[in-house]
Amino acid sequence: MERDADWQEQRRQAIAGHAAALEAGRAAEAREAAALIDEFVRKAGDHGLTPHMLMARTFDGRATYRTHVRGWYLKSNRSVAVGEDGEYYVLTVPASLRARFTGAELTPSMPRLIVGAGGGDGETIPLRQLLDQRLEAGVSWP
After folding, report:
1. What is the rounded (10 degree) CA torsion for 73, 30, 121, 134?
2. What is the domain count for the chain?
3. pTM for the whole thing?
4. Which domain holds residue 71?
5. pLDDT in single tens digits along all 142 residues of the chain
Protein backbone atom coordinates (compact mmCIF):
# COMPACT_ATOMS: atom_id res chain seq x y z
CA MET A 1 0.00 0.00 0.00
CA GLU A 2 2.82 2.38 0.94
CA ARG A 3 4.63 1.49 -2.27
CA ASP A 4 1.57 2.49 -4.32
CA ALA A 5 1.33 5.79 -2.45
CA ASP A 6 5.03 6.50 -3.07
CA TRP A 7 4.65 5.71 -6.76
CA GLN A 8 1.58 7.94 -7.05
CA GLU A 9 3.40 10.81 -5.31
CA GLN A 10 6.40 10.41 -7.62
CA ARG A 11 4.07 10.40 -10.59
CA ARG A 12 2.32 13.58 -9.39
CA GLN A 13 5.69 15.30 -8.93
CA ALA A 14 6.86 14.23 -12.37
CA ILE A 15 3.67 15.55 -13.97
CA ALA A 16 3.94 18.84 -12.07
CA GLY A 17 7.58 19.21 -13.11
CA HIS A 18 6.74 18.50 -16.74
CA ALA A 19 3.89 21.04 -16.69
CA ALA A 20 6.16 23.67 -15.13
CA ALA A 21 8.81 23.07 -17.78
CA LEU A 22 6.23 23.37 -20.57
CA GLU A 23 4.89 26.60 -19.10
CA ALA A 24 8.38 28.06 -18.73
CA GLY A 25 9.16 27.18 -22.35
CA ARG A 26 5.89 28.68 -23.53
CA ALA A 27 6.56 31.90 -21.59
CA ALA A 28 10.04 32.18 -23.11
CA GLU A 29 8.58 31.62 -26.58
CA ALA A 30 5.96 34.32 -25.96
CA ARG A 31 8.63 36.82 -24.86
CA GLU A 32 10.64 36.15 -28.02
CA ALA A 33 7.52 36.47 -30.20
CA ALA A 34 6.53 39.70 -28.41
CA ALA A 35 9.96 41.16 -29.19
CA LEU A 36 9.46 40.33 -32.89
CA ILE A 37 6.04 42.00 -32.79
CA ASP A 38 7.41 45.13 -31.09
CA GLU A 39 10.06 45.36 -33.79
CA PHE A 40 7.38 44.95 -36.48
CA VAL A 41 5.21 47.75 -35.03
CA ARG A 42 8.23 50.08 -34.99
CA LYS A 43 9.21 49.15 -38.56
CA ALA A 44 5.62 49.45 -39.79
CA GLY A 45 5.64 53.07 -38.67
CA ASP A 46 9.02 53.63 -40.32
CA HIS A 47 7.70 52.11 -43.57
CA GLY A 48 4.55 54.24 -43.50
CA LEU A 49 2.17 51.31 -43.07
CA THR A 50 -1.13 52.66 -41.84
CA PRO A 51 -3.00 50.49 -39.35
CA HIS A 52 -6.59 49.59 -40.22
CA MET A 53 -9.61 48.92 -38.04
CA LEU A 54 -9.52 45.15 -37.71
CA MET A 55 -12.46 42.91 -38.46
CA ALA A 56 -13.13 39.59 -36.75
CA ARG A 57 -14.96 36.53 -38.07
CA THR A 58 -17.20 34.21 -36.18
CA PHE A 59 -15.90 30.73 -35.46
CA ASP A 60 -18.20 29.33 -38.15
CA GLY A 61 -17.09 32.01 -40.65
CA ARG A 62 -20.61 33.19 -41.41
CA ALA A 63 -20.40 36.71 -40.00
CA THR A 64 -17.80 39.45 -39.77
CA TYR A 65 -17.79 42.09 -37.04
CA ARG A 66 -16.03 45.39 -36.59
CA THR A 67 -13.63 45.62 -33.67
CA HIS A 68 -12.21 48.53 -31.73
CA VAL A 69 -8.62 47.53 -32.49
CA ARG A 70 -6.43 49.10 -35.14
CA GLY A 71 -3.59 47.11 -36.63
CA TRP A 72 -2.20 45.09 -39.50
CA TYR A 73 -3.43 41.75 -40.84
CA LEU A 74 -0.64 39.22 -41.13
CA LYS A 75 -2.31 36.56 -43.25
CA SER A 76 -4.27 37.11 -46.46
CA ASN A 77 -7.29 35.33 -44.93
CA ARG A 78 -7.24 37.98 -42.17
CA SER A 79 -7.25 35.40 -39.39
CA VAL A 80 -4.41 36.92 -37.36
CA ALA A 81 -3.17 40.45 -36.84
CA VAL A 82 -0.88 42.66 -34.85
CA GLY A 83 -2.47 45.66 -33.19
CA GLU A 84 -0.84 49.06 -33.14
CA ASP A 85 -0.77 48.44 -29.38
CA GLY A 86 1.84 45.72 -30.01
CA GLU A 87 -0.52 42.87 -29.16
CA TYR A 88 -1.14 39.73 -31.21
CA TYR A 89 -4.74 38.93 -32.12
CA VAL A 90 -6.44 35.82 -33.44
CA LEU A 91 -9.43 37.27 -35.27
CA THR A 92 -12.13 34.72 -34.50
CA VAL A 93 -14.92 35.40 -32.05
CA PRO A 94 -18.19 33.79 -31.00
CA ALA A 95 -21.32 34.81 -32.91
CA SER A 96 -23.15 37.62 -31.14
CA LEU A 97 -26.13 39.80 -31.91
CA ARG A 98 -24.66 42.51 -29.70
CA ALA A 99 -21.34 42.42 -31.62
CA ARG A 100 -23.27 42.99 -34.84
CA PHE A 101 -24.23 46.44 -33.53
CA THR A 102 -21.46 47.43 -31.13
CA GLY A 103 -18.49 45.57 -32.54
CA ALA A 104 -16.67 42.50 -31.30
CA GLU A 105 -14.36 42.63 -28.31
CA LEU A 106 -10.91 41.26 -29.05
CA THR A 107 -8.65 39.84 -26.40
CA PRO A 108 -4.93 39.68 -27.15
CA SER A 109 -3.55 36.18 -27.57
CA MET A 110 -0.20 34.87 -26.43
CA PRO A 111 1.95 34.97 -29.56
CA ARG A 112 3.82 31.91 -30.75
CA LEU A 113 6.92 31.75 -32.89
CA ILE A 114 5.11 29.37 -35.24
CA VAL A 115 1.69 30.72 -36.22
CA GLY A 116 -0.87 27.95 -36.42
CA ALA A 117 1.16 25.49 -34.31
CA GLY A 118 -1.21 23.21 -32.46
CA GLY A 119 -4.15 24.36 -34.55
CA GLY A 120 -4.66 21.04 -36.28
CA ASP A 121 -5.25 22.44 -39.77
CA GLY A 122 -1.65 21.87 -40.83
CA GLU A 123 -1.17 25.47 -41.92
CA THR A 124 1.85 26.70 -39.96
CA ILE A 125 4.27 29.50 -40.72
CA PRO A 126 7.01 31.16 -38.68
CA LEU A 127 5.89 34.45 -37.12
CA ARG A 128 9.04 36.20 -38.32
CA GLN A 129 8.25 35.18 -41.92
CA LEU A 130 4.70 36.56 -41.65
CA LEU A 131 5.93 39.84 -40.19
CA ASP A 132 8.63 40.21 -42.86
CA GLN A 133 6.17 39.43 -45.65
CA ARG A 134 3.78 42.06 -44.32
CA LEU A 135 6.51 44.69 -44.24
CA GLU A 136 7.63 43.75 -47.77
CA ALA A 137 4.08 43.99 -49.10
CA GLY A 138 3.95 47.55 -47.82
CA VAL A 139 0.95 49.78 -48.21
CA SER A 140 -0.43 47.85 -51.17
CA TRP A 141 -1.76 45.13 -48.89
CA PRO A 142 -4.66 45.85 -46.50
Report:
1. 30
2. 1
3. 0.82
4. 2-140
5. 777 778 888 888 888 888 888 888 889 999 999 999 999 999 998 988 999 999 999 999 999 999 999 999 999 899 999 999 999 999 999 999 999 999 999 999 999 999 987 665 658 899 999 999 999 887 666 6
